[in-house]
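Mods, move this if it's the wrong board.
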Amino acid sequence: MADIIQLLPDHVANQIAAGEVVQRPASVVKELLENAIDADATVIKLIIKDAGKTLIQVIDNGKGMSTTDARLSFERHATSKIRSAEDLFSLHTKGFRGEALASIAAIAHVELKTKQEQDELGTQITIEGSDVTSQDVVVTPKGSSISVKHLFFNIPARRNFLKSNTVETRHIIDEFHRVALAHPNISFSMYHNGSEVFHLPESKTRQRIVNIFGGKTNEKLVPVEEATEVLKISGFVGKPEFSKKSRSEQFFFVNNRFIKSAYLNHAINAAYDGLLRDGNQPAYFLNLTVDPKSIDINIHPTKTEIKFDDEHTLYAILRSSVKHSLGQFNIAPVLDFEYDTNLDTPYNYKDKNASNPTVEVDRDFNPFVEQQTSGKQITAFKKQTPNNWDSLYVGLESKGTRSEHDFSQVEFESEEQTGSIFKNDASTDKVQKTYQLHNKYIICTVKSGMLLIDQHRAHQRILYEGLLRNMTVKEAVSQQLLFPLKLHFSSNELTVLEQMKDDLEATGFVFSSFNQKGVNIIGVPVNVPDSEVSIILEQLISDVEQEVPDSHFSATDLLAKSMAKSLAIKTGQSLSVVEQEHLVNSLFACKEPSVSPVNRATFITLNVDELDKKFM
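Not the wrong board. Structure tokens:
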């Protein structure tokens, strides 16, 4: 029998490796930015076109490469980061797999220009699908410039799986944020389709966070500093009152490398226990410095997951450090029932001497004696009884007679009755048709048995179809606010809101200004309290980021779902009989009353036969 096992060609092996390393344009951005950082660059520029599908270019002023290194950098398992297997457990750099550039070059057109400081001329290499098409000497500044064009040009099936430009750009911005936050000592800039998106000069960590997420972020941050033999923690956490439902402001860095860890995230949530509203997530930007030998980075192709030797110790230290910072800056509540604020002394009184109070006493004063004051007579504690007390009863008729003052003609003042939203049938003989169970379900009788309706899902369906109708017809009613609302969001969140602006206005929102400094709202939809506006918009942003819609995604539909979920009556809310009946009638007036906007059942039917079987 002939041999059937054979070695794969290099270009096929590179394409297989690219499946692990390069999942989308954001993966290329991550690898190229990390290579620039490893080259000791102080200024890094990222240029993308068409969400990275057409061009991804990273320019840095790092050390550069020689002609031989530039050529070898595109070979598989060629790296300057490690020399032996032991080096994998003592890493101080970003990339180390030795497959990044080789994998990228296998599925794109790559052009590299690089020059070292001591060289007069640099090297230019052009590669298309792992094949080197040219290698020339070129005049270029110190550092490296690598351009990746036409990503997945030779794998059309893989290219078809990419999402819309909006979604892919959001992923690129996320990777850019992760690298920029970990290295505030490096200047970063990002350009998309010729326009500048970010310009982040060299700064401290706090200023880098403010430059990325907006000026109002500064007042939300609480510093965290802790140093132990096992772990060193530095960074910031957010104040509880500024927490959001999304996880967009949660960043863990281990030795300046972004990671994801549900275990450490649980430690942060434990530190915030009792301080957050239900469903809200804390914000944190924490850098953990540990011994490289105590962690294993190479357990995931993207290197975003790390295995720790002693996770329990890290958990305890992290939880205690965050809790201590929240308490130190008076974020955590402190109760002192014996404290009296009247005993506080103002700071400007600390150097003043206490003066004895003066008391003046009128020794001739007698409260039981009439006195003459300013020509008026004042009588104290003297009760005067009227002499003509019998005149008080003049005008009353004798018993048995009637007059115009008879009590039969007395009119009693009654309370004014105001109109109600629903028609109130005051008849006592009306049979109640609906009942509320545990403030969650509405029981309604029908001919075949009974209906059990989930009030939250049912109201979601009612609001969803109403919002869709308003957005389609564009006849939504808006109520003007007495005082405009000014809300602040990060640049990424503002981008999402700007895309949804037209649909938001179709639902009843009115914006007076919409810029990078914030959003001013002067009108909101009817029945939407102004206190819920920020919660609704944050929920909308979270839904857009979590669903990651593709090119076929309808912004109108997602907006209607998100607003319906935020405005629907919640489980545990008590409803009157009139409100229950109105909810039931409105539900069955919908086009799809049986399911909620997310395709979950709104009610179930229990037939009499099914109930009879329960008693057999």
